[in-house]
Amino acid sequence: EDKVVQSPLSLVVHEGDTVTLNCSYEVTNFRSLLWYKQEKKAPTFLFMLTSSGIEKKSGRLSSILDKKELFSILNITATQTGDSAVYLCAVEYFGYGGSQGNLIFGKGTKLSVKP
Amino acid sequence: DVKVTQSSRYLVKRTGEKVFLECVQDMDHENMFWYRQDPGLGLRLIYFSYDVKMKEKGDIPEGYSVSREKKERFSLILESASTNQTSMYLCASSPGGFVNTEAFFGQGTRLTVV
Predict the structure, then answer these.
(1) Which whole number is the average pLDDT over B91-107?
(2) Is A101 in Cβ contact with B107 (below 8 Å)?
């Protein structure tokens, strides 16, 4: 059965700390791995990863994929209270017939950043 | 910017009512999805559609049906709403074919069934 597992489920840190969020997956016909940030409304896209070992960066956030060990990490440096959110990992896989993609989501990591 | 619009932010319906949740995207995407999100369970796929009039069951299709008569619109139907369908419903769309791109989400509909 295809699955995506995120850890930890929740995390409390103080401003300025660095955090690492984990996402492991077991998916047939892997296509890509995506990270989303969800605050009070719908998830917003952070990164899409398709190749192993290539780090993607956006400001204080970065992410990398290991397709051999089947996991990805999301790093946030110098955390701020505005980083408090649920971070979702999703894996896209080829659907029936190989022509469509679908997504499996992990349960998310709830990050709380205290002042 | 890609826009995925869900018709209602909040809905309150009675048990047994027929409920329609509408989703419209404006980027000519082939794929559209309906998820529900519940605390501790993450996002779970209800149905998805990869073309007009085409649909596939997701992980939790029971109690739901969908309709995609036009490419831009994907409707989720609760034939007879029940209290265990109280949830946040999220619609998403993504380009089809072999292009690796992200999915775009609507703002969500918080449905309460009383």
Answers:
(1) 73
(2) no
Residue A95 or B45, more confident: B45
Number of compact structural domains in chain B? 1
d(CA A42, CA A34): 15
CATH number assigned to the domain covering A3-110 = 2.60.40.10
Domain ranges of chain A: 3-110
Q: Give the phi and the psi of residue B96 in degrees, each rounded to 5.
A: -95, -160
CA distance A1 to chain B (A): 11
- Supply the mean pLDDT for chain B: 88
DSSP state of A60: T
Per-residue confidence band for A3, with pLDDT thresholds at 50, 70 and 90: confident
More confident position, B85 or A48: B85
Mean pLDDT of chain A: 88
Comparing CB atoms, the residue among A42, A50, A99 nearest residue B108 is: A42
Distance from CA of A51 to the nearest CA of B (A): 12
CA B65-A43-B15 angle, to 5 degrees, is 35
> At B63, which CATH number?
2.60.40.10
Interface test with B, best of A102, A104, A110 (most B CBs within 10 A): A102
Q: Nearest by CB to A42, from B50, B90, B94: name it.
A: B90
Q: Assign B36 to helix, strand or coil.
A: strand
Hey, what are A37's tokens?
Answer: 């940030």
Lowest mean per-residue pLDDT among A21-25, A102-106, B69-73, B110-114: A102-106
Domain encompassing residue B97: 4-113
